[in-house]
Design a protein that fits this description.
about 220 residues; alpha/beta; 6 helices; globular
Length: about 220
């Protein structure tokens, strides 16, 4: 357990690409998807240092679900913002003054393992950030909007970014304050650090950690 770590679990998405049902309420292996990553990662820090950011319409429902599967959890539940980065910033403010390091994880990645958060945390303590990522092995093409290929991109230094992502809390708070003040749209936490001129370091994740976006993604879940 890391006593100086807080974890922000993002569960405020609208599941617009998934369908009518909130994807986090889907049942997999007798657990709602919402529960999997929280159950896996929450033992790594004090429960009072865990923030669950929810859609305001789901706070009571998500709190009830997590109390069922993780009784007396002591988590803090807050409502999210309009965009993902607004939700992250609210989570960071809820952690402020409690911890030194902040981990951010999308609950739509239910296959996450403790291993990768451990590695990201250790690298963050050493270098200031630790971002779960995978090297891109597919051939990558750059194309115009009509699908016409412009060029084949050199993939040797290309990575696909995942969560968890771990940062020194003061650095990521400052970075998010800057992108919000400058009205910059981002979809990834490390991008806020880059925008603020902070260094970002990647940790290669050897395990499955896919994000559930479409219903067909459920077919690719494997917890082996």
């Amino acid at each position: 357990m890391y006593y100086d770590l807080g974890i922000i679990f993002l569960a405020a998405g609208r599941s617009t690409r998934y369908g009518e049902k909130d994807k986090l309420l889907e049942n997999y292996k007798n657990l709602p998807l919402l529960v999997h990553s929280i159950q896996t990662l929450s033992p790594l820090c004090k429960r009072e240092n865990i923030i669950v950011v929810c859609n305001k319409l789901n706070i009571a429902k998500f709190e009830s679900i997590l109390n069922k599967y993780i009784p007396d959890n002591g988590f803090t539940f807050i409502s999210g913002g309009k965009e993902r980065f607004n939700s992250v910033y609210k989570g960071l403010l809820a952690l402020k003054d409690k911890v030194t390091y902040a981990a951010i994880h999308d609950t739509a990645r239910p296959m996450v393992r403790q291993y990768i958060l451990n590695e990201c945390y250790r690298l963050c303590r050493k270098l200031g950030s630790g971002i779960a990522a995978k090297k891109i092995n597919d051939t990558v093409k750059k194309a115009e909007q009509n699908g016409l290929v412009i060029e084949t991109v050199d993939r040797r230094n290309l990575w696909s970014i995942e969560t968890p992502q771990v940062f020194k809390l003061s650095d990521i708070l400052l970075s998010y304050s800057k992108i919000i003040e400058d009205n910059i749209f981002i979809t990834d936490d490390s991008s806020a650090m880059e925008y603020a001129g902070k260094k970002v370091y990647l940790v290669e994740n050897p395990f499955p950690n896919g994000k559930i976006t479409y219903k067909t993604d459920l077919n690719n879940i494997s917890f082996k």
